[in-house]
Structure formats: C-alpha cells, structure tokens
Write a structure and sequence with these properties.
The protein is an alpha/beta fold and 75 residues long. The protein is built from 3 helices and 3 strands; from the N terminus they run H-E-H-E-H-E. The chain has a 3-stranded parallel sheet with strand order 1-2-3. Strand 1, helix 2 and strand 2 form a beta-alpha-beta unit. The radius of gyration is 13 Å and the shape is elongated. The relative contact order is 0.16. The model has no long low-confidence stretch (mean pLDDT 92).
Length: 75
C-alpha cells in the first residue's frame, strides 16, 4: 500500500496499534501539510495545521477553522 493520501492515515493507525498505543493519541497530535492529498490525516488529528497550502486545501482549512501558516515570501 502506498504511503499517500488515506494510505498515510492507515499506516499511522497500524503503527500506533503495533506500538500498543491508543488511536485516541491522534486527537492530541499536530500534523502539518501543504497538500490536499493529506486531507485524511489532517482530518484525523486534533491540531491540523496547513502551511502555504494549495488552493483546495486552503479552502478546506478555512471552512473547517484549521490553523493556517503562510511562509512563502516570494514577491
């Protein structure tokens, strides 16, 4: 399975289970991303942060009230 899109979330859940850690840890976790491809993982964590997001992710973040960071300082 590819470690992309919803595959990232499945792999993270598998890793947590392997470690014997509860999935509820995700609700205390920060995840940073700039791509709509990470929507599943951003939606699963308690503290999603989008950084210089693509247009679709920015729209989603604004609608969901997620933190938004802009670092791109190109003129």
């Amino acid at each position: 399975e590819l470690n992309m899109g919803s595959g990232k979330l499945r792999r993270l859940r598998q890793w947590l289970a392997h470690k014997g850690w509860p999935e509820q840890l995700l609700k205390r976790t920060y995840f940073y991303s700039d791509s709509i491809n990470d929507l599943a993982l951003l939606s699963a964590v308690g503290f999603p942060v989008v950084v210089d997001p693509d247009q679709r992710l920015e729209s989603t973040a604004l609608r969901k009230g997620w933190s938004l960071v802009r670092l791109d300082r190109r003129p």
